[in-house]
Amino acid sequence: MKRYLWLALLLFLALLLGRAGMPDWHEGPEQYLADTPLSGYRFSAVLQAFGESSQALLGKSAWAFRFPMLLLAMGLLLLLSELGRILFGESRKNLQLAVFMSSVWSLFAFSQMGGDAWLLAALAGYGLTAVLYLKRPSAPLLVENILFLSLALWIAWLPALLGSMAFWLVLRFFHPFGKRLSGLYSSLLWLPALAAGASGYLFYEPELFLMAFPQQGQWSELSSGLSAFTAWAEMKPGVYLLLQVLALLPWLGFLAAGLYEMVLNLRKREEMSLLAAAFLLGGLFSFSLLPQWAFAILIARQLEGYVKKNYPYGNLVKGFAILQLVISFALVFVLVFFGTLSGKAAYGKFALQGLLLWVPAVAGIVGLLMKRPVLYIGGPLVAAFAGWLLFL
């Protein structure tokens, strides 16, 4: 499965570098952090420090401010690779990383300065080290787990607090070795974080998050350049979940089968399903991008199992795969239609990008019928990255 990982990595880096270097309407966060006094915003000051150091080397530009995010992306991939290999095995870990990198939200979060990627990295590290601690408790793992949770609480205390608690509760009460998570370290971090956040000593800045935790209030003091970010401050849970699913649209067939199998296996308290459910609930309660990793776990499992004899979810996979083909065609048609109406000669651009998205998706359907991994894995993988071109 390494060939899919290397293909995904090359496409991920190429699109990430291209997107990060594009001067466009989405320079809001970088411009805000560069031009606005940041006294009182602790996490913003961290972003500011990274950005200023990068600008000192690369000059004043959005690219220079976004450069540290590329390093964070590589760090997260290494973390998921090393810890994932221990938990899932080499082959499945490679598929998980390939699917995760193909997510629209993964590409979007790491191509600009913002808090989503930082929170994702911290919560993913917290979750993976917690599961490893369950399997083989050790002091180093405990320290790593505490450090990841501390970082998450510092980045965005309220989403991190709720997300880590949801993850902890699933494993504590449903995992066979859940009692190993009964130590005092959780309360020693959660209670001070709750007190510090409620009293104003920990800050959470929704304006720096695409996936902002829903709360009341307007951010009228922010510049108009951040309007794309501030609109998410009132995001509803249903919209948030829909966006998480659409980000992996080419994998919809395998995602549907993975979710269905997870629900069935949760009744038996099967470990991999518990782990995926913990990541999914942790993401939903934190309004972070963590569900993208949970979905990658579920999809990779189905990709491995599809060619096995008596695979039970073949019809489900094919049905939802055809559905995503219809949805993607409708999406491209709408883009071409409105591009034509705009009168800006956008027809050819959207038609070509849509073709790049749709043709690999059709190849994936053919691969499902022929049970050819190179098609049913490679097709959706290329289609997912081609879909990202619609945002360029």
Largest sheet: none
- Share of β-strand residues: under 5%
* SS-derived structural category: mainly alpha
Poorly predicted segments: 216-233
How far apart, in Å, are the first and last alpha carbons?
Answer: 29 Å
Task: List the total number of helices.
Answer: 19
Number of strands: 0
Amount of helix:
over 70%
Q: Indicate the mean pLDDT.
A: 81
Q: Sketch the topology as an H/E string, one letter per element.
A: HHHHHHHHHHHHHHHHHHH
Rounded to an integer in angstroms, the radius of gyration calculated over CA atoms is 21 Å
Query: What is the 3D form?
Result: globular
Describe the structure using short key phrases.
single chain; 392 residues; mainly alpha; 19 helices; 0% strand; globular
Question: How would you describe this protein?
Answer:
- It contains 19 helices and no strands.
- It has helices spanning 2-20, 28-35, 42-58, 62-88, 90-101, 104-109, 116-135, 139-155, 157-174, 185-199, 227-230, 237-246, 252-266, 271-286, 291-305, 314-342, 347-370, 373-376, 378-388.
- With 392 residues, it is an all-alpha fold.
- Helix content is 73%, strand content 0%.
